[in-house]
Each structure stands twice: as C-alpha cells, then as structure tokens.
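not sure who needs this but someone in the group chat was asking about Peroxidase from Solanum lycopersicum so here u go. i didnt clean anything up, its just raw.
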Amino acid sequence: MKIVALLLVFLCYFFQIFVSAQLKIGFYNSSCPNAEFIVKSIVQKRFKNNPSITGALLRLHFHDCGVSGCDASILIDSDSSKNQISEKDSAPNLTVRGYELIDEIKEKLESICPLIVSCSDIVTLATRDAVALAGGPTYTIPTGRRDGLVSNSSVDLPDPTESVSEILRFFRTIGLNKFDMVTLLGAHTVGVAHCLFFQSRVSDFRGTGRPDPTMDPKLVKKLFRLCTTSKPVTTLNDAPKTFLDQNTSFIVDNQYYNQISKKKGILKIDQELALDKLSAPIVARFANNGNAFRKSFAKSMIKMGNINVLVGNDGEIRKNCRAFNNPN
C-alpha cells in the first residue's frame, strides 16, 4: 500500500510539472490585454469596502483546487430541476463565499473579451491580488487554465478536527508536501471560523466536560461567551464566528504562527500545527521570520494553483461561471 501511495504522489507531482509547463505568464497579453488589470481593479474596489474578501477568496481557491483541481468546479450552481447538487452545495463548502465577486469580474471581462478568460484563471488571479492588497507577498502566476465540465457534491476536503498526519496525507494526494501544508494553513491569518467548528474545544473537549487544555484560558473564556450568549440563528452563515488570527486579522503576515505558538489557535488543527513534531519546527521558523513565511506562501500558492489544471483543448471557457456552456 505504501508503494502504491508513493507512486500516486510521484505521478501527481510529474503531471503537475507537465501541465504547468503549458501555462504561461501573460497568457492573455494578445487575446485580452487588459484582463489582469480588470481583475485587479475590481478586487481593489471590493477590498476597500470589505477587507475580509481576502480570506474568502483564499478559502474559495483552496476548496476549488483541493477537489478535482483548479477548474472552477466550485462555482457551478446546483440544478434543482434535474436534482443535481453541485460541489458548491456540499457540506464543506456551505460557508464558502466570494462567488458574487467572481461573477462581477467575469461579466466585465465577457463584455470586452467574450469567451476568452476562464473562470479558473479569474479565481487564481483575484486571490493573488487580494493577498497583495492585504499586505501579503506579490507574485506572478502563469495563466491559461480552462474550466472543468464536472461539479458534484462528492468532495473530500480536510476537516479541522483531523490530526496533522491525517491532513498531511490529504495534501500529499494532491501533490503538495509538508511545507506546503503548514504554509497554506497560514491563510488562516485572514480567515474566520464559526462556533460549530471549535465550540467543543471551549466547553466539552473530547467528552471531558472541560475545555481543551492546549488553549489559552483567556481565549477559552472569550470564545465560550461568544458561542453561548449569541441569539439563535437560522443559517450557518449567520452563526457567531471569530478571527483565526486574533491579532492582525485582516493582514497576511506571520502573526498566525505567533498566535498558535502561544496556545491561541482557534481550530484544533491550528493548535496542533504548533505541537506536532511534523509541523512544529516549520511553525517556529515562520513565527520568527516573517520573510520566510512570505516567500514560502507565494511559492505554495503558485504550486497549488497548478493542481490538475485543464489546458489546451480540455474543458471549456465558460460564459457564465455558475453554469456550464452546454449543460446537456
């Protein structure tokens, strides 16, 4: 079994190298010269009014790439008339947001360069621009991705209650390594979590009736109040939530690693990153060296954006990011 697993990882890795070679910096320079400028200008406008869009796009991008590859399959709407549930409406994606921003960008690009710029490239470019606006690293990404033709509700994404080893296994199946895992979880520097995902840590950890001993007691009290004194809600998106980085919540920096090093990790996986021997040395390095995190984050984001992308004549360029061009 170990040999088979290693073979799959190597095949995935070499496939990514082959495909990424077909992507190109400035892919739209001739076909739609202002494409990247348009994406950036619309993201800038949204970020100015709502800086939380950076965290939203990072999660949207990861949840797209982590399922079938970076093919914009997460953007497809379900079709109730055909009883077809899309990836977007799977349980792990119910709190993903940012779709309307992608729609706005796509509508603008379609008015200038119809059926030229893919939705998958829009997601990748918009995320990169949002990261830079939030103080994170600037990096150049190749484009030329095409949009997938499949989107279903069967998704396999890591759960925040899983161990470091379990989540590392997932990352390896999509061609990413331990350093990528620790780095990309650093996206929590601008993310939020709903009480549902951490409430047991502050009230009844593993059925003990007590909070998680690895969490800072002051943070336990703060989160316990947040989750137990809120009014009833009707949807998950309305449920109380908190920043995963309690310090610089809208800035892409290394403070997330400093927080989890001080027992202030919100999610179980956040805290375990700082405790598990597989990841603790990397966490300590990033906590002490912001530039090391920035360089690693840019590298891992580029690498993630190359996961199982469609190029050439594969897939399609959608006219509407929420629907396949020919749903039949």
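also The first helix runs from residue 2 to 20. if thats useful
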